[in-house]
């Protein structure tokens, strides 16, 4: 984790922290399992948000619908890339971090 202490810019508090979510070398099978799990959870989050918005307000949550499609496309591309690595007998290095920033 990288963390910077809070700063005051004007009258606005700005704080930022970075966290490693995935960091390591994995077999193609492990990489696919990890990435599918993360992407599936994100897809589920956006599908539930869309469903909830439709039920409560009778409207489509456009951002979530768009993001769901983007994630599904990424999932397909990632699966193809990992299949190629498996065919070539390669190990994969995955790195993923999240940055949290007060705005």
Give an overview in words:
With 103 residues, the chain is α+β, with helices and mostly antiparallel strands. The chain has one domain (2-101). It is 54% helix and 28% strand. The protein has 2 helices and 5 strands; from the N terminus they run ββββααβ. A 3-stranded antiparallel β-sheet has the order 1-4-5. A two-stranded antiparallel ribbon has the order 2-3. The radius of gyration is 18 Å and the shape is flat. The mean pLDDT is 92.
Key traits:
103 residues; alpha+beta; two-stranded antiparallel sheet; 2 helices
The helix fraction, in percent, is: 40-55%
Number of domains: 1
**Percent range for β-strand residues:** 25-35%
Number of strands: 5
Distance between the termini: 20 Å
Runs in which pLDDT lies below 50 for 5 or more consecutive residues are: none
What class, by secondary structure content? alpha+beta
Radius of gyration: 18 Å
Write down the overall mean pLDDT.
92
Number of helices: 2
**What kind of sheet is the major sheet?**
3 strands, antiparallel
Q: What overall geometry do the principal axes of the alpha carbons give?
A: flat
Secondary-structure element sequence? EEEEHHE
Strands ordered across the widest β-sheet: 1-4-5
Would you spell out the secondary-structure blueprint of this structure?
Blueprint lengths: L1 E2 L3 E3 L2 E3 L1 E11 L1 H30 L4 H26 L4 E10 L2
Antiparallel strand pairs: 1-4, 2-3, 4-5
Helix pairs in contact: 1-2
């Amino acid at each position: 984790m990288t963390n910077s202490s809070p700063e005051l810019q004007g009258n606005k508090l700005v704080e930022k922290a970075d966290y490693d979510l995935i960091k390591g070398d994995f077999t193609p099978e492990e990489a696919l399992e990890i990435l599918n799990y993360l992407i599936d959870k994100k897809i589920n989050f956006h599908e539930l948000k869309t469903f909830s918005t439709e039920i409560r307000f009778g409207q489509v949550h456009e951002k979530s619908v768009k993001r769901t499609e983007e994630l599904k496309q990424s999932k397909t591309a990632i699966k193809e890339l990992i299949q190629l690595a498996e065919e070539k007998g390669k190990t994969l290095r995955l790195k993923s971090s999240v940055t949290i920033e007060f705005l």
